[in-house]
Amino acid sequence: MASIIDIKEECALQVRDFEFTYKGATSPSLKKVSMPIAKHSITALIGPSGCGKTTLLRAFNRMHDLYPGNTYAGEIEFEGRNILTPKEDLIHLRTKIGMIFQKPTAFPMSIFDNVAYGMRLQGIKNKTELNDRVEKALKDAAIWKEVSDRLKHDANGLSGGQQQRLCIARAIAVEPDVLLFDEPTSALDPISTQGIEKLVIELKERVSIIIVTHNMQQAARVSDYTGFMYLGELIELGQTEELFVTPKEKLTQEYITGKFG
Amino acid sequence: MTAVQKRILINRIALVFSTLSAIIALGFLFWILGILVMKGMSALNWNIFIYEGAPPGYEDSGLKHALTGQLILVGLATSVGVPLGILAGTYLSEYGKNSKLAHAIRDISDIMMSAPSIVIGAFVYAIIVMPMGHFSAWAGAIALAIIMIPIILRTTDDMLQLVPGTLREAAFALGAPKYKVILSVVYRGAKAGILTGVLLGIARVAGETAPLLFTSFNDNFFTTDLNAAMPSLTVTMFNYATSPYEDWQQLGWAAAFILSMFILGLNVLGRLILLAGKGK
Amino acid sequence: MIDKIFFNFTRFSALLILVIVAWIFVVLFNQSIEAMNTFGLDFITKDEWAPNLDKFGAYAAIFGSVASTFLAMLLAIPVAIGVAIFLSEIAHDKIKGFFGVSVELLAAIPSVIYGMWGLFYFVPILRDIFGGMGIGLLAAGIVLAIMILPFMAAVTRDAMNTTPDILKESAYALGGTQWDVIKDVIIPYAKAGIIGSLILALGRAIGETMAVTFVMGNVHHVPGSILDPTTSIPVTLANEFTEADSSLYFSSLFGLALTLLIMSFVVIAIAKFYFLRKARRA
Hints:
The complex is a heterotrimer.
Chain A: E1 3-4, E2 11-21, E3 30-38, E4 42-46, H1 53-60, E5 71-78, E6 81-82, H2 90-96, E7 97-100, H3 111-121, H4 127-140, H5 144-147, H6 160-173, E8 178-182, H7 190-203, E9 208-212, H8 216-222, E10 225-230, E11 233-239, H9 240-245, H10 250-256
Parallel strand pairs in A: 1-11, 4-9, 4-10, 7-8, 8-9
Antiparallel strand pairs in A: 2-3, 2-5, 5-6, 10-11
Helix pairs in contact in A: 3-4, 3-6, 4-6, 6-7
Chain B: H1 3-43, H2 47-50, H3 64-96, H4 100-113, H5 117-132, H6 137-162, H7 165-173, H8 178-189, H9 191-206, H10 233-242, H11 246-279
Chain C: H1 2-39, H2 42-45, E1 49-50, E2 55-56, H3 59-90, H4 93-106, H5 111-130, H6 137-161, H7 165-173, H8 178-189, H9 191-206, H10 210-216, H11 233-240, H12 247-281
Antiparallel strand pairs in C: 1-2
Helix pairs in contact in C: 1-12, 3-4, 3-6, 3-9, 3-11, 4-6, 5-6, 5-10, 6-9, 6-10, 7-8, 9-12, 10-11, 11-12
């Protein structure tokens, strides 16, 4: 069976016997997944494509609810409650658990409006407050210097790497507790990738991070904990160094040594 | 009320409005469709296919003349429009590609696709009906063909471009001349798409009335003479529906029903062919 | 050898399109010279249309075309956008498929049938509500709106559907509601495509003949109210082309046809080459 370590830190999220079935599928895509997500650290999810890592990630902010017919079982505990219940307030949940996608997703509006978007949704109208928080978010996302003189410009004029940092700024501007990264550098060049990775590491001071990546080196570089998934199951969760150096499961070892994947 | 609650409320209202507009729109459209089916079905009987037009009040009146005329007109238009459209589309996709000329042709043809069809009728009137001195089936068919060509051209161009370049290269590598590659490989690869385009093109012109009003004009009797005015379902509908006679109006609805079923059938068939082609 | 022949056949067919379009313009222009020489600018600025006096001013027909199209757009655009939102964002898959196909099939129904419905079923209702004859600008606008609605909704939905899922998900991930996502992401993203689609529908409406011929009245007067009968270019052509008995009358009708062709060409070209091309590039 799976080997899941106990973590020393407090938990941001706790997954228990989580199962997920896509609409119309006969068997669940995720089977009895249980894992803790440590606070203020980075947990990476790795595994071959189709292993369910993105499916798991998208369950934390209930992204699957956008497409009717998918079903959850088990529980995911966040702030002392199970967030998989039907009465969960998804708007509130998603402001607490933000998400960054595979590709930069700048909205068709100005750079400023992109970052202010989430705050405006929460009803913040005060100009000085918006200005301050947009500036802070852009600084935290290490993009302020590049865009401070063109905040009113269309965000789609930025490069891919800049857009992705803009999206991170947009996500942290609403001050979430958890950030989900879904292969955030898969569409970027190596230099932009480096920038994003550095940023992710800096961000764990303030948020708990879960990052899905198809790139094992990336997981090794940025994360504190790594979970290896295979065919819808969590095979192993360990401290990143240990998992890559002395994996406890045979499957994990085969995967990280490149025997399959 | 907090900002978020307000947003949720606005969301509900907006979604209700949009659903309502869908219901209203479809309500109107199904109302029209319902009338078409009810009026059409009740007016439908075998006499319609046996008898030609007759003065109002006669028992033995039908639509045989209009049905035949419609088939002849659409058939003629198809036999002119389809080959020209397919050849022109072939030029764009296989020879012209991204040249300025090819783009100019695509643009002009695209505009033509939405141009008012009654203007085409006026044009054909000027070049055929006026010199000949009388209305004719030829004139009507040519007007329809002119409307059809841009539709066929567009779908052929699109569908041929979907055929992967490697398939062409493979055929060239076997030493086939270009026309053979096009005829035997490219056309075969795009068969379903082109056929769908042809069916939709036919469906489109079959419903046209305006370009026929002063080209093939109309006739209340059965004729196969291509040099004379020829009745069509659409113009017959137009005339019968605007007449004050109840039985003519009945026949008008029957014609509307038959024509609509024909056009819907072509559309559905076109979709099925495209789906079957994709499924492979 | 055969290669060359085949090539020439295809090129001939392709060039034929350009020839036909140029030919249409030339023929319509030549045919309308007499009217232009006789009336000059009065042809489009005067509304006296009196065949028995050989006086032809097309202003009423042009006004009727523009006004009925404007009215139709005014009525159809909000509903079409609502339907498009419903089809792309609200409806569940099964309903989406059913409604989507119905809308597309309804777009294929011959416009003359909308006209017949208007004349026999809708005009009497208008007559009951507003009195008068029922036929007129309002009836034409409504029938035109209903006729253009399926096409408009289908192309608007297609434009909205070009918005990448991931972009929508990003807005949901920030706590947006469906409506937030529609108004802040989908509509801004698909703006050029939506506007292009709407203008394209306008281009179709302005040249539409059969849906409005029955219900407009064919009266060459600028209407005093939207309930008054009037005419439009296609309606005039449909009603009078086979009745014209003088060469000036004919020439004036060709002048109308040319005016209509130029109007719709300009509108369609703006839709296709400005907005829809921009939408494709984005």
